[in-house]
Amino acid sequence: MKNKETEQRTQLMKELRKQGLSYRAIGLRLGVSRQTVFNHIGGYERVCYFTPWTEQDIAYKGLREYMNEHRMSKTDFTRLIYGQPFNPNNFQRLSKILAGGENFTKPTIDKILSATGLTYEEAFRKEV
Predict the structure, then answer these.
(1) pTM
(2) CATH topology of domain 52-128
(3) In the predicted model, is pLDDT for residue 44 greater than 80?
(4) SS3 labels along 91-116
(5) What pLDDT was estimated at residue 47?
(6) Which of 77, 114, 111 is nearest to 92 (CA)?
(7) How far apart are CA 14 and CA 21, in angstroms?
(8) Handedness of CA 75, 80, 86, 89 (dihedral sign)
(9) Which neighbouring-strand residues pair with 126?
């Protein structure tokens, strides 16, 4: 059985993963390898504990519904839009945009529509 310290560390890893951090970023923050993080919580957000996005997280109803339907973290969505390798700058910018804090650029809109198959109206409608 896991000891209390291990359980607490695993819980912290899960919380950081829910915030959209990559396994590597979590490992750097906690002083362990990416593989160690994966061994503890690999697949966590997709299989067991996906928490649906809310209006406070994602301002655009269509994108929120798309991400919830596909059980996507913000990291997953960033990779879908910008491809590999993961770029933290793209993640930060996209997180602000999704929350309604920054405006989209035309190239970003085009990438989102192409990757999701949504129309502009479907993707970017806001709550009324």
Answers:
(1) 0.60
(2) 434 Repressor (Amino-terminal Domain) (1.10.260)
(3) no
(4) HHHHHHHHCCCCCCCHHHHHHHHHHH
(5) 45
(6) 77
(7) 10
(8) negative
(9) 60
Q: From residue 125, how far is each of 5, 84, 96 by CA, in Å?
A: 44, 28, 17
Q: How far is CA 101 from CA 28, 56, 96, 110, in A?
A: 28, 11, 5, 19
Per-residue pLDDT at 40 exceeds 70? yes
**Locate tokens 């061994």: which residue?**
39
Nearest alpha-carbon partner for 14 in 52, 51, 57:
51
Mean pLDDT value of segment 19-41? 86
Q: For 73-88, what is each residue's pLDDT tens digit? A: 888 888 888 886 778 8
